[in-house]
Amino acid sequence: MFSTKQREFLDNANRRWNVKYGATRSGKTYLxxxxxxxxxxxxxxxxxxxxxxxxxxGTLQRNVIEPLQDIWGxxxxxxxxxxxxxxxxxxxxxxxxxxxxxxxxxxxGPSFKYCYGDEVATWDEGVxxxxxxxxxxxxxxxxxxxxxxxxxxxxxxxxxxxxxIFQQKYTLYDNxxxxxxxLQSLETEYRGTVFFDRYILGDWKAAEGTIYMxxxxxxxxxxxxxxxxxxxxxxxxxxxxxxxxxxxxxxxGITYNFxxxxxxxxxxxxxxxxxxxxxxxxxxxxxxxxxxxxxxxxTFCDYGALGNVITLGLIRRCQKERLPVQVVxxxxxxxxxxxxxxxxxxxxxxxxxxxxNTIITKAFQDAxxxxxxxxxxxxxxxxxxxxxxxxxxxxxxxxENLINSRR
Length: 407
Prior knowledge:
Elements: H1 4-12, E1 17-22, H2 32-42, E2 49-54, H3 57-72, E3 85-88, E4 91-97, H4 101-104, E5 112-117, H5 125-134, E6 141-146, H6 154-159, E7 165-170, H7 180-190, H8 194-199, H9 213-217, E8 223-224, E9 231-239, E10 247-255, E11 261-269, H10 275-293, E12 298-301, H11 305-320, E13 326-329, H12 335-347, E14 351-354, H13 358-366, H14 385-395, H15 399-405
């Protein structure tokens, strides 16, 4: 069964570029699990390559390959092999991450007879420009999906061009098969943020003003005096402040089944510290957290030229002190993904700060979008970005678990 919107795409999407953008869970990607085999069969035996591109190889496997396997079986859809190819419906397909144009350079030269694109707005623009030159057969076609970003995004400019494009906008309300309680839950999750306009209404909406509006307006609802449930994971995020002599430690706790997140403790080093002083302060902070919560399994550190050297020394110092902690580089990810995670936890009432942590509280209250640059958090020294970074580093390794826990 297909929705009216999906049926419209099946009947009319026969241009060189066929794009669906809009809300999450609106059915735009699900339709492609039937479109992809149709397109591949239509070009079977014709010259050119079949290519599937996603933000990363990992997201491609999860968002495209595995759902195709669930519907059509592993005999028709194989996993992505070590050479970045998969066998789809009898045809060899190249499956590559589009977050860096060096990936697509691996298959430089041949024409593409069909290309499917997942999460197009997250790609490196250079990959898309290269794709345009390779989709050069008379029968070449591209199918792609994405969630909207800001109105000045390079892909939005392409969609507004005079290229041979069939495009559809999906809102959350275009999916008649979505349970009412799921729809209401998603509305609640995104309300009060730029993500509501993008991921519910399907609009290319500019990010502006206060980032965490819900937190800023109702801060008291997120503050607690103590943790009233058992913590499964306790971590520390370390931000070195990009050489600005602002070093931050933020401890976070995650409850069982990745349900809730607590900001447990913080330490703000605002002076000029040499490595040995940093190590001493970290040991003090770590022991304070460990003594309070009887665990602290991970420390996730900022990295870079300076950060790598300091972290290496920190690892050695923790080993010398026999601290039961893994000190590793953080999973930075995209800043906007980190913002999305924090916003989602807040909207779902799964995020709490111990009241004593006034520095990180103010950092969330004050966080702003940069009015001079699209989809960028303001980082001009007027707001405390370093504390937010340290917190995000402390939980970002568990991003998928935290996002999927509620769903």
